[in-house]
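Translate sequence into structure tokens.
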Amino acid sequence: MIQYRHSLDYQNDENWTQYCTYRDLRAQMLSSAVGEILNASEETNYEQKMKNAIHSQTLLSMMNVAKETFIQNHSKLKGAVEAFNR
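Result follows.
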């Protein structure tokens, strides 16, 4: 319950929104990278699967940037993360 309340406190923050969007898109990219993608001739499209896997790595980097920016912009979170990392 506490986690949801804190999430609502930051729901309108641009970096939080970006993080959630990147997270959801990454989940879709990973799912399609391991799932079946067929081309027009009904063969597995390995090129697209690899593109999706690479794009998921890019999204992970974007998630980390958004998360770090979000933490830096909120002093309560910055202190909590520093304490957690000790």
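Note: The mean pLDDT is 85.
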